[in-house]
Amino acid sequence: MPEGNWFTFEEHVQACCACDLHRGIRNKVPGQGDPHSPLMFIGEGPGEQEDAQGLAFVGAAGQLLTRMLQAISLPRERVYICNVVKCRPPGNRTPDMQEMQACLPLLREQFLLVRPRIIILLGATAARAVLNPDIRITRDRGRWVERKGVWFMATYHPSYLLRSPERKAEAWKDLQSLRAQLMAMKLYPDLYDTLHDN
Ligand code: SF4
After folding, report:
1. 32 belongs to a structural domain
2. Could you tell me if residue 20 is inside a domain?
3. How many domains is the chain partitioned into structurally?
4. Domain around 158
5. CA distance 171 to 168
6. Residue range 80-121, pLDDT digits in tens
7. Closest C-alpha to ligand 1, atom 4
8. Per the domain annotation, does 111 fall within a domain?
9. Residue 82: inside a domain, yes or no?
10. What phi and psi, each to the nearest 5 degrees, are found at residue 56?
């Protein structure tokens, strides 16, 4: 992935000690995927597997995310995936607002490099950090919000879906909505035949 400013971004991530989360981690987890993808997924923070490998969404939740993308014919390598915080919170606790605020400049830097047209926020924590601190995921998931030409939608985090499989039907609706939005915006014309697919 590294090219041009991606090197600088990686340096910024690796050098960052703007909050205490970097203490005790094994690896920073900047994120990975297509560096110019029109579609970006943002989760909350790295878990144990991610911390061990330095890669985002590689544990059980990541495998579910891969299957969810496959369900709408979207290869995972065609999207960009990252988290609000780049260091694993101890014991997988939710990062606090101060930690997320400290890490947001890195997410902004990443956003400016990828320049996605659509951002999917995985879970309430990411949705609150990026979109609106008052979001309630059960109420607000699946709604599209446009800001400065970028479309945002919040949906359930795959790790929540693993714990609450009864929510998968709603997540499937959100995926269908994402697929429709990708088609409407003609973002993957090689994957979705907008004339014959629906
Ligand atoms: Fe820096 Fe983000 Fe890690 Fe905190 S979580 S130390 S802000 S990279």
Report:
1. no
2. no
3. 1
4. 38-183
5. 5
6. 999 999 999 999 999 999 999 999 999 999 999 999 999 999
7. 19
8. yes
9. yes
10. -80, 140
